[in-house]
Amino acid sequence: xxxxxxxxxxxxxxxxxxxxxxxxxxxxxxxxxxxxxxxxxxxxxxxxxxxxxxxxxxxxxxxxxxxxxxxxxxxxxxxxxxxxxxxxxxxxxxxxxxxxxxxxxxxxxxxxxxxxxxxxxxxxxxxxxxxxxxxxxxxxxxxxxxxxxxxxxxxxxxxxxxxxxxxxxxxxxxxxxxxxxxxxxxxxxxxxxxxxxxxxxxxxxxxxxxxxxxxxxxxxxxxxxxxxxxxxxxxxxxxxxxxxxxxx
Length: 248
Ligand SMILES: C[S@@+](CC[C@H](N)C(=O)[O-])C[C@H]1O[C@@H](n2cnc3c(N)ncnc32)[C@H](O)[C@@H]1O
Prior knowledge:
alpha/beta; four-stranded antiparallel sheet
């Protein structure tokens, strides 16, 4: 198994993968509340939701009085974010672009990157470009909060394959360890039409040690780690790795 370096170009389409599934949308208000509790921002503060996707968290941040910018590569997800904002009667600034090329300098009080929207590149230097761009986009002393699947958990609970029943489709996830990460092949089988789609993606694994090193290289000093959105303490066994860091 291997994957194209720029695999994200064809992967993030609702016909294959929808980050705003009903279950994910239901969790978003509590996740956003946890994030805002840690960021302690004043009303009107500027927040960048980096890789905002269909905007399920971005609208929650905007509802709580922040000036929210959502940035994502997928035009389809950004259209959905705009529609979600309209429906919820909140303002969102939305901008399309690649996370390795963030256009801002010193504009945001905080940047968030949620739901494993990181570690997608075959070259670590591309992940670092993303983190450096986030640091550059922050005001001095600004905060960065990142939420990814915990690399240490994946390494110790490695399963070569899993099946999921996701309502209208089944998903077969197959994995193969690669240097620094995992190649994943997803097979989506539509229950009604029987249509089968396969796509491969790469995910660099970040445990606490790797995340700490990467953030520091980008000029972001880790302040605190959690293992989940209920504020669980982080351990090697946590499913998630959530880190709050400060522009140093
Ligand atoms: C797992 S989804 C999470 C979306 C959103 N944060 C959420 O929680 O619903 C990952 C997101 O990263 C975006 N993405 C993938 N590669 C990207 C890139 N190179 N630059 C910017 N966004 C990218 C995808 O379009 C997708 O919206």
